[in-house]
Write a structure and sequence with these properties.
The complex is a heterodimer of chains A (121) and B (257). With 121 residues, chain A is α+β, with helices and mostly antiparallel strands. Helices cover 22% and strands 31% of the residues of chain A. In chain A, α1 crosses α2. In chain B, β3, α3 and β4 form a beta-alpha-beta unit. The longest helix of chain B has 26 residues. The chains are: A alpha+beta (121), B alpha/beta (257).
């Protein structure tokens, strides 16, 4: 249910970097722990992006697994269920290594042939 | 025309976090500690505040409340009898309101909030277990209330919310005698998702646990100040070992707020 607001945030971020150019492709990097429903996000992106530079852009989502790290034993492991506990050392010293990302990774925009923007990566 | 790939690598919630930082500066300037209070609808946020804040001013802690609701001022009306500053913030723009408060909504309400009259501002978020966890508002601490009528498995279904909070209040424990509810299992599930959470059991109705809630609240400004002084020293390169302090979730917040 948070996907509507998240898609608004995505569109705002994409537009900021598009500088008025038409956006053809958006790549997001989303961690498992964000509990984002991809289909729902895509559905709302189409609605929120309508009549903006983002309208019609294709969407690619890079899934980032939920990986925890124990700061005591330095072990790292991926979780499939929300258990933030180290099998060896217990709950005291566990941190999230990856899985909390909600990033706009890159966008593809249409440029004029001779635009200086091609220098951008 | 040809296509250019633009590398962005930006947290999509940066815009909200920037406004949250501006709120934070305003709170800091007035020396106000801010609590973001969240829960599912009906868990008892307002009742907890009615019980927990009653008489707290006489004990030397000045608390104000910013009431977030989709519509109406029912909660603010209930709290107004406590003779503390209460400001209503409605998220309804006429077409059905937002399901959460974000930094900008809080910012728009701030001119009406007498920050100079309070030590702690409690922002009572819209009842919702999902969206409020995503949006920082410039708070120092996040608390959530869950009640024993909601099911022991809620932390496992809504880990985003349960992990975002440093304290979880289990409310309505006076009802346990009527329910097939395993409160120990709920607490175990909370700690599985958020091992560093402080868990408190309360009944806003009978008053059980309310004293502990009030004590936690009264101690909050000094604790937050100490933590921030510690982090500040850390930022300046002093040799501090953070590993055994057990506040991962603060590290996460500092990256954005």
């Amino acid at each position: 249910m948070h996907e509507f607001d998240l898609s608004s945030a995505v569109v705002a971020t994409v537009r900021k970097h598009a500088h008025g150019r038409k956006v053809t492709h958006v790549t997001l990097r989303i961690g498992r722990l964000r509990q984002v429903v991809k289909d729902t996000l895509e559905f709302y992106l189409a609605i929120v992006g309508k009549d903006t530079e983002v309208e019609g852009a294709t969407l690619e989502i890079i899934d980032v697994p939920a990986v925890l790290r124990c700061k005591t034993c330095k072990n790292e492991w991926e979780i499939e269920i929300p258990a933030f506990i180290c099998g060896t050392c217990g709950p005291g010293n566990v941190e999230v290594a990856t899985g909390e990302e909600f990033m706009v990774e890159s966008i593809e925009v249409e440029d004029e042939e001779d635009a200086a923007c091609t220098a951008q990566r | 025309m040809h296509r250019t790939k633009v590398r962005v690598v930006e947290d999509a919630l940066d815009a909200n976090n920037t406004i949250a930082s501006a709120n934070r500066s305003d709170f800091d300037r007035e020396n106000v500690t801010v609590v973001n209070l969240m829960s599912a609808p009906g868990a008892g946020k307002t009742t907890l505040l009615e019980a927990g804040l009653n008489g707290i001013a006489e004990e030397g802690t000045r608390v104000g409340v910013l009431e977030g609701d989709v519509q109406g001022s029912f909660d603010a009306d209930r709290l107004s009898v406590l003779h503390i500053p209460v400001v209503q913030l409605n998220t309804d723009n006429g077409f059905g309101g937002e399901c959460h408060l974000d930094a900008n909504m809080v910012r728009s309400a701030l001119p009406a909030v007498p920050l100079d009259e309070m030590d702690i501002l409690i922002v009572e978020n819209v009842g919702n277990l999902v969206c409020p966890a995503e949006f920082r508002i410039g708070e120092d601490s996040r608390i959530m209330v869950c009640s024993v009528t909601e099911g022991e498995d809620k932390p496992l279904k809504y880990p985003l919310m349960f992990r975002a909070c440093e304290m979880v209040v289990i409310n309505k424990i006076d009802l346990l005698q009527y329910l097939d509810f395993d409160v120990d299992r709920l607490e175990a599930n909370i700690l599985q998702v958020n091992p560093h959470a402080t868990v408190l059991r309360t009944s806003a109705k009978t008053g059980e646990g309310i004293e502990a809630f009030r004590d936690w609240l009264k101690a909050l400004p000094a604790r937050i100040a100490a933590e921030r002084a510690h982090d500040h020293a850390h930022e300046h390169g002093h040799d501090h070992d953070h590993d055994d302090h057990g506040h991962d979730h603060h590290d996460h917040e500092h990256a954005t707020a």
